Amino acid sequence: RKEVEQDPGPFNVPEGATVAFNCTYSNSASQSFFWYRQDCRKEPKLLMSVYSSGNEDGRFTAQLNRASQYISLLIRDSKLSDSATYLCVVNLVGSARQLTFGSGTQLTVLP
Amino acid sequence: NAGVTQTPKFQVLKTGQSMTLQCAQDMNHEYMSWYRQDPGMGLRLIHYSVGAGITDQGEVPNGYNVSRSTTEDFPLRLLSAAPSQTSVYFCASTLEYGDREAFFGQGTRLTVV
């Protein structure tokens, strides 16, 4: 079983749609959680951190459910510029590996 | 600040050749790492360093060497290239171990024929 699992997609949605991505992690000792964005053939960049209380940044909302070991990302009012691959990332405190990446979910927003 | 600078951007090697991927950061970050990204696999950690003079293996270290003689530089050496090492390589740095935001270089697309 992969340590961080994501639905690879692709998700093809029309502009203005709401889309949700899910991610599960296997290690219950994981402490920090993030969503990174990776544009085609580019490097990953931090989109937002994920907190137990949930957090929102404009059109983006991230949720964490520690009991179910589940992370989500909701994008409202999708824009063409949201087209990218979204990577779920987990940090296991005390692990030398630091960040463990999911394989990513590909999103295409259609005009 | 340039951030994380990674060279070259593209490289084609023949099986058995060796080469060094360069990575430099100007943010005075302690922690640097190398990942490879393959289709459907996500980013996998090759080697990492928690500071100058200290390196350790990640998830997929075989066939690669690293050194960290300065805080700024963290080169990755392929000892004898194999087709299985065809991949996209990313160097990353974070301010300190456990810091939440990793800054990545632009990547190196390596093909081994």
Helix content of chain A: under 10%
First and last CA, distance of chain B:
36 Å
How can the largest sheet of chain A be summarized? Answer: 6 strands, mixed
Task: Characterize the biggest β-sheet of chain B.
Answer: 7 strands, mixed
Mean pLDDT of chain B: 93
Q: Outline the low-pLDDT stretches of chain B.
A: none
What is the string of SSEs of chain B from the N terminus onward? EEEEEEEEEEE
The rough form of chain A would be described as: globular
Query: What is the succession of H and E elements of chain A?
Result: EEEEEEEEEEE
Oligomeric state, counting identical vs distinct chains:
heterodimer
Count of DSSP H/I helices of chain A: 0
Shape of chain B from CA axes? globular
In angstroms, what is the radius of gyration of chain A? 13 Å
Secondary structure class of chain A reads mainly beta
Percentage of β-strand residues of chain A:
over 45%
Describe this entry's structure for a reader:
The complex is a heterodimer of chains A (111) and B (113). In chain A, 0% of the residues lie in helices and 54% in strands. Chain A has no helices and eleven strands. In chain A, a hairpin with a 4-residue loop joins strand 7 (60-65) and strand 8 (70-75). The model of chain A has no long low-confidence stretch (mean pLDDT 90). In chain B, the strands form two sheets. In chain B, strands 2, 4, 5, 6, 9, 10 and 11 form a seven-stranded mixed β-sheet that branches. In chain B, strand 5 and strand 6 form a beta hairpin. The chains are: A mainly beta (111), B mainly beta (113). The interface between A and B is medium-sized, with 23 and 24 residues.
